[in-house]
Amino acid sequence: MTAISIESLIHTWPGQSHATLDIKELNINAGDTFFIHGASGSGKSTLLNILAGVLSIQSGKLEVLGQNFATMSHAQRDKFRADNIGYIFQQFNLLPYLTVMENVTLPCHASKQRERNAIEQYGSVEEAAHYGLTSLNIPKALFHTSVMRLSVGQQQRVAAARALIGNPSIIIADEPTSALDHDNIQNFMETLKQKCSEINSTLVFVSHDRTLAEFFGQSMTLPSRLQEAEQ
Ligand SMILES: Nc1ncnc2c1ncn2[C@@H]1O[C@H](COP(=O)(O)OP(=O)(O)OP(=O)(O)O)[C@@H](O)[C@H]1O
């Protein structure tokens, strides 16, 4: 099954003389690990926002899990995202006034489907969060403390546990390793891949760091607009 299918996708931001994104064709199979590399300004965030349904499609075709995004309203895409996409942000986006557990269980409050999946597999949302955090090496003693008291590496693993809870079909990761040191990057990449494979989730991972491509089954590079402008 195809998880993500793109045909002739073009996105031009207002005031720009040429398109930020121009992707003729891209197919990502369900369960694959896919790396998108691109320099700063090449349109990585724009593409991820389109894939997650945050931005509407201007031109071309995009199907995510067989759903045609062009025919869906903003509200339909928001629900689809909550149910089917776990998102890991560059700056983690953990809520500072919530505990580790409260952060991790959030997606199950936003999506009945993810809540159901968590309960079916682990008996309760809390048990699902416990399992996720433990398997990502977060000590139990930290489960009920504020996320602000965690190290950067721990915060990123909590962000991963939050993205994975309730088994979303797709995990999108936007530069999630940029704040980590070398050893933490290796550990984080291996663990993230293993966890995605455990829940049969498709991993779409974006970074400016092309050395990370080695961790993935397939990859693509977005052309640098700066280079094009200079040619
Ligand atoms: N909301 C917006 N309004 C107008 N232009 C935008 C907007 N967001 C992005 N752009 C433009 O689109 C281009 C690509 O930006 P984007 O953030 O997608 O790139 P990126 O590859 O994620 O960059 P970085 O690695 O620096 O985060 C840039 O020229 C940027 O100015």
From TrEMBL:
**Residues in ABC transporter domain copies:** 4-228
**Keywords, alphabetical:** ATP-binding, Nucleotide-binding, Transport
> Per the record, a Pfam family?
ABC_tran
SUPFAM superfamilies referenced in this protein's UniProt entry, alphabetically:
P-loop containing nucleoside triphosphate hydrolases
Q: Gene3D superfamilies annotated for this entry? A: P-loop containing nucleotide triphosphate hydrolases
Q: Please, which domain of life does this record's source organism belong to?
A: Bacteria
State the similarity comment. Belongs to the ABC transporter superfamily.
PANTHER family in UniProt: ABC TRANSPORTER ATP-BINDING PROTEIN MG467-RELATED (PTHR42798:SF2), LIPOPROTEIN-RELEASING SYSTEM ATP-BINDING PROTEIN LOLD (PTHR42798)
Instruction: Give the protein's recorded name.
Output: Putative ABC transport system ATP-binding protein
